[in-house]
Amino acid sequence: MDGANHFIGGAFDPGLGTRTGPVYNPATGEVAYQLHYADRATLDRVCEVACKAGRDWGNSSHARRIGVIFKMRELVIRDTDILAELVGKENGKTLDDAKGEIGRGLEALEFAAAEPHVTKGEFTRNVGGNIDMFSFRQPVGIVACIAPFNFPVMVPLAMTAMAVATGNAVILKPSERVPGAAAHLSKLWTEAGLPDGVWSVVNGDKEIVDAILEHPAIGAISFVGSTGVGEYIYQKGTSHNKRVASYTGGKNHMIVMPDADLDQAASAFVSAGFGSASQRCMAVSVAVVVGEDTANTLREKVVALIGRLKVGSYDTKGADFGPVVTAAAKKSVNDAIERAVQEGGELVVDGRDLKVEGFEGGYFCGPSLVDNVTMDMHLWQEEIFGPVRAFMRAKDLDEALDIVNAHEFGNGAAIFTRSGYASQRFANEVEAGMIGVNVPIPIPVGYHNFGGLRRSKFGDAHMFGPDAARFYTKMKTVSHRWPDPESVDQGLSMSFPSNS
Ligand code: NAD
Questions:
Q1: In the chain, N or C: fewer CB atoms in 10 Å?
Q2: CA 424–ligand 1 middle distance (angstroms)
């Protein structure tokens, strides 16, 4: 089976490693297949192939590279159903949700087609006597992208589209829990005309990630995943003199002001809070509601909407969300609920006993809601990657902002209000990289920059937008003089050259 293998030199390949790991269907809890894990010797082979192929690719014309990007976009659209099925089976999210992420992944390809515009250089004539100066960008060389389980198509496309377009050879290390979509993307890149070796996939866990972090041929690493791992990757990768961008965990707050449209706020909280079984880095985790009356009314509306949610397998008609990804993830959700109750939270909706008929072995968690959460509670302090959401109460916007800004994460934040003053203050003062005003999941479109603040991001790059092109290219600046062959030599000058 293709998905069980790495993708090296344009072909599926089990590699040289001897370790394997199970890939589960989270809706049934059954092992679907065993995945080959790569070792250092396999990575050496991949880098050898990538180095050669990348050199030619990096020297190819922009038109050629952009042609491949255009074709890849067409093929991803053509194979949306196939990709969505692979995502649903391994990640657990519903087919509609999977198609949504594929659509957002296309934006990365669309913006990558603008690569020549974003990377074109600068030129100044006569910076000194008859000297012109220009700067230009070249691909880094070999870049590695290490992906999480929660967006098996969108995140790999977001990380790799611009890397390919700018002329790099790319090594993707997908999450070992969801490798199927990456295998299919490999076939599509080949069909799109990408030369063999420019795109590789290596599967595995920490062992292969450590090999990537240390490999001298790899110049840049883009990582998306949890904060502890992202911080480690940033520190170790940069200590090996690689450029590293780590996009990490979140705890996204949604402030609801008394003047907000509370129906709109309630549906935003439930859809952005529980969609994908809350396994989104931009999921709303906490509603910070201003005023007791606002909180009580909003809570009533939220509870009514939660009551209508249907949990099922990825392909169950009408299911709103599926299982969490592993048995361990389910346990951590249940433990977080238990602890929240012990610490004084009010468990308003308890989803722990959910049974999904026909899927008794699956990792399903029903939606849970805890009210009266406070900043000393584990449920507020930690990112809980599963469907338990929190309500907090604040007396005014100042207090609400203090709560949001006290958190160590700063990925996204939203405010629901009809007040221009409140929304403007929020955007100015909130410590989050991606901000929504009456928008619950403010993921920027592919031509803007994506990335959080504080411990939600390590490094100063952004994943999409013009920053992505800068991250995957290195700049050179050339001082250029062509003296008149007939002119007389000025002789030796030992002073530091000045241009005046
Ligand atoms: P994870 O950190 O467990 O895994 C991410 C990648 O790192 C995987 O490829 C995995 O194989 C590898 N990895 C895991 N443990 C490692 C270790 N000890 N050493 C080296 N490599 C290791 O993350 P996940 O559970 O797959 O994804 C969920 C997390 O990702 C959440 O925290 C979520 O917020 C975050 N996320 C962030 C963004 C963002 O843009 N900021 C987007 C999506 C997901």
A1: C
A2: 33
